[in-house]
Amino acid sequence: MFSDTERKALMAGSSNIEFYRGDLMTEMKESIHSIIVQYAGLQGNHCSFFGLHNEKQGGNYMLILVNELRMDLSGQGIVADCALLPLEYESVQTLGSGLRNLMGKSGIVSVKTSDAETKAWLQFSVGMVERCRTWTHNQNKCEYYKLKKIPLTAPDLSVGKSPICNCGKGLFPTSFYADDRIKPLLPYATRAALGPLFSPPYSTKPQDFKDMARKVEERLAMMSKEIREGTCGGCGTSKRADGDETLMKCARCKGIEYCSKECQKGDWKRHKADCQVRET
């Protein structure tokens, strides 16, 4: 999902957060990754309800209510099958009791987005709906046809209005209605599929798994050396068999120590693969 550059920036932690803030693709990937991982419970508690949140523009502007994770055979990945609910200024009062009930019982996890990412989500949401659409746009009623623009919030892409037409509102399989927590909100929501974003190989360097494996091997070798240092490579003791405090080093590589010739002989089958003459 993340390129090598993006992964390094994310793993660097908060000290380097400005390294990728402003990179819209990385911001979007991080938000989507956070939603899927938290729904799957891979980082602690299982969470189903998420609010895209822009503090400067009034807080939560769109709810993503995840029903389940599904296999995406065409994309060879997974998608979150969800209800997408843009919080329109005109409908917030109507949704009031349903929203309060949802927040009171389970809570909504806020996913903070920058101004640029907020605009991207308003555009991206249309594609999320079209990705799993099973209904047909009504040319006589569909807002896309009437206003001749997609998303409906274009060109300013401001929050408070739905970027999605009303054609698919409330059209959900029965599995969604089985959850009493979101049932009152479904008539105002549209089914959508949220999947990870991947970097095309020609635009950015992907994660180099061979390099990752090599680094892991180097680290394990270093840890092994640290563990062995000052102890016998055969039995693990820190003293020689004859009572001398100084262990005997391998005469060839000088990189491993033994308490006795017997231990050295017994360990040779394992050690000979790593034993190399040290250059002086």
TrEMBL record:
Keyword terms of this UniProt record: Metal-binding, Zinc, Zinc-finger
A Gene Ontology term for the protein's cellular component: nucleus
Molecular-function GO terms, alphabetical: DNA-binding transcription factor activity, RNA polymerase II-specific; zinc ion binding
Superkingdom of this protein's organism: Eukaryota
Pfam families cross-referenced by the UniProt entry: zf-MYND
Positions of the MYND-type domain: 232-275
Protein name per its UniProtKB record: MYND-type domain-containing protein
